[in-house]
Structure formats: C-alpha cells, structure tokens
Amino acid sequence: MAKSAKAESVAQQTAVRLRRAFGAWLKLLGTEDVWDWVATQRNRRQVRSLLSRFKPPTTEDDEGLAGVLSGLSRSKYLVEAALTWADPCIGPGPTRTALARGEQWQLAIAWAGVECQIKAVLEIEDNGVKSAKIDEFVTACGLADQYVELAPPRRELKDLRRWLKAERRFDREAILVYLGPTAKHEEKGILCDWLVRGNSIKRWSDALRLAQQLRHKTAHGALSATKACTWGLRPAFRRLVIDLAVVTARVFEKMGEGQEMG
Question: Could you write out the DSSP letters of every residue in the chain?
C-alpha cells in the first residue's frame, strides 16, 4: 500500500513547519549550545520565561535546566528523522511486511521524540508518560487546528474480522490477549476503543495515546508486521507520524510567540 501523493505532500509541509519552528526557537536562544543559555542568571531567567508557556520549570540548577533544553532539541531531531524517512523498510524487501515493519518503527522513533518533548516541558522524571500528562501537554500546546478524525481499520478485513469475533479469553477480548500480557484496564483504553470497538480518534490527546500504545505493542514485539498489514493498520501508522510532528512543531511555535530574547 503506497503512500498517496496527498499524504506525501502533507508530510513534506509538516517537515517544513517543524524546521521553521525549531529554527525560530534556536534564534531566540541565540545558540545551539544549551550551556551558553544557562551560563548567567539573566539567560536562565529568559529561558525560564520561555519554558513557562507550558509549565514554570522547577529545577534550580544549571544542569537540570540544560537537560530540559537538551530534551527539547532531541525531540525535534527524532521526530524529523521519522517524518522524513522516505519509504521506511526493515527486512528483505521491499515486501509488504518489510514496509509495514518500517512504518511501525517510524512511528516508534516519532513517539520517542514526542516523549522527550513531553518529559522536558513538564519535567517528568519517571519512565514513560502517563495519560493525564498527555492531556496536560496537549492543553498547554493550545493546538488551534481541529483534529481531523482518524478512522478505525476496516471491519470487513478478513483477518481482523476473525479476531474481533473470537471468543473472549481470560475475561478479555481475544485480540488484546493476542497482543501480549496486558492489564485489564486496556479494555477501557484507547487502543481497544479504536481497534476493537471501531470508534474514530477525534482528539489530539487520543491520537497521542494511540501512538503511544501502538509504539509499545511494536517495541515489545506484540504487534507483528504481518498483523499490521492484515488488520489494516498501516494508514494509521503513517498518519500518526505526521500528527506527532504537528504537535512537536506546535511546542516550538508556542514558545516563540511574542518572544524577544538576546
């Protein structure tokens, strides 16, 4: 399943937006060396003002503040690398499964970047990002664009239909059991709501949650490339990479709005 010309155009436009937003942010900082911007009290005060558009930073030491800035920088490069990875393919190919596997890991890279960004601006030290923090992050972004619904996979696909109709196992949906050891609360989670119940994704925060869940299932080896194909998941993987890049760009845009530093 090849990318449509429209999807490629949207990805290219989003890449330009991300580079422009990050470039403007670097211009405000005046340097790519984050240590230069925590070297003096005046610089630290200005950086804190910038970061306070999301959440006033609590760290008091230079190293902690530099870590926040470094996390923001890493987020851009990870997301950009994923977004601009043309025709991702992992394994002998390009076969359908090798291309699907490439798209799965393309999303995993993009999520790694967004996770860096969320942890940086919200100063999260724990492993992973909890659902409530995703809500806080998206609210702080102030995304003006209404989220364009992401439809669930087509229910008529033979293999997906077979798994959706399978008997429940261990008091859970069979398809969720197949996707590996999972907590019972996932039956109320976004992946189940989208994949099993067939509900569209309608909010930015839910798009991030779905990206996070698909990344986890990929990275932990629970979701194979074959199932990504036969369950019709490939369009969602490609779309979510673009969504994550939009959010990443928006963070840098918001921190640069009405700011003059130097």
Answer: -PPPHHHHHHHHHHHHHHHHHHHHHHHHHT-S-GGGGGSSHHHHHHHHHHHTTT------SHHHHHHHHHHHHHHHHHHHHHHT--S---SSTT-HHHHHHHHHHHHHHHHHHHHHHHHHHHT--SSS--HHHHHHHHHHHT--SPPPPBPPPPTT-HHHHHHHTSPPBTTB-HHHHHT-S--GGGGGSHHIIIIIS-PPB-SHHHHHHHHHHHHHHHHTT-S-HHHHHHTT-HHHHHHHHHHHHHHHHHHHHHHHTT----
pLDDT of residue 261: 46
What is the Cα–Cα distance from 99 to 94, expressed in whole angstroms?
A: 6
Q: What is the pLDDT of residues 10-46, one digit of tens each?
A: 999 999 999 999 998 888 877 677 667 677 777 777 7
What residue ranges do the domains of the chain occupy?
5-144+240-256
Long-range CB pairs of 209-214 (<8 Å, 24+ gap) are 209/131, 209/134, 210/150, 210/236, 210/240, 211/107, 211/110, 211/111, 211/114, 211/240, 211/243, 211/244, 212/111, 212/115, 212/129, 212/134, 213/189, 214/104, 214/107, 214/240
> Tell me, what's the pLDDT at 3?
65
> How remote is the C-alpha of 50 from its chain's centroid?
22
Q: What is the Cα–Cα distance from 110 to 120, expressed in whole angstroms?
A: 15
